[in-house]
Write a structure and sequence with these properties.
This protein has about 180 residues and is mainly beta. The chain is built from 2 helices and 7 strands; from the N terminus they run E-E-E-E-E-H-E-E-H. The strands form 2 sheets. Strands 5-4-3-6-7 form a 5-stranded antiparallel sheet. Strands 1-2 form a two-stranded antiparallel ribbon. It is globular, with a radius of gyration of 18 Å. The N terminus is likely disordered.
């Protein structure tokens, strides 16, 4: 059985052709057969039997930053999704895996909350996470910035403390390397 290597890709929507295309980190087009599905929203797969090579379908993530203000979160940004249809019109989002490590008061969770393929639509957070797509994890606490006139306070990721980094490193040691 042949093994395949994961392709690091940036998914983009070509608005002139109204289709989704992918480019690798060097800007080269990736054949559609090797492109990650930009529309899937996996959460967690069904447990796999030892003799079964397939997992079950994922579920749509329901992660919301608003539910975790003050919490320490480890983000693993995967891609920038452009032109997603929402009830407010088309919007861009960061697709990221999320691990909530503490509650809103800073107390470490006995079982971290893991969400895979979460879409984050807040513009400030998109800017903070986009530099790390397919490169590295981002650690920080969810906070709120200063509201512009007539707008609500934007969500943002605050710098982690040294204690926050200790919590994150302890979690990372518990997960199997890929």
């Amino acid at each position: 059985m042949a093994t395949t290597r994961p392709i690091r890709a940036i998914i983009m929507q070509d608005k002139s052709k109204d289709k989704i295309m992918a480019k690798d980190v060097n800007g080269n087009k990736i054949p559609k057969s090797k492109t990650p599905d930009a529309t899937s929203k996996p959460k967690a797969s069904t447990p796999v039997e030892d003799d079964d090579e397939f997992g079950g379908p994922g579920e749509r993530s329901n992660f919301k930053l608003a539910d975790h203000v003050g919490a320490l979160i480890l983000f693993t940004p995967k891609s920038l999704e452009e032109g997603i249809e929402t009830s407010f019109g088309d919007a861009d989002a960061i697709k990221t895996d999320v691990v909530v490590l503490t509650n809103e008061k800073g107390k470490a969770l006995a079982e971290p909350i893991e969400e895979f393929g979460a879409l984050i639509f807040q513009r400030v957070v998109i800017g903070q996470l986009s530099e790390s797509i397919a490169k590295r994890r981002v650690l920080g606490r969810v906070g709120k910035g200063v509201a512009k006139k007539g707008q609500s306070e934007p969500f943002l990721i605050e710098e982690p403390s040294d204690d926050d980094k200790v919590i994150a490193r302890a979690y990372i040691k518990t997960i199997a390397p890929f």
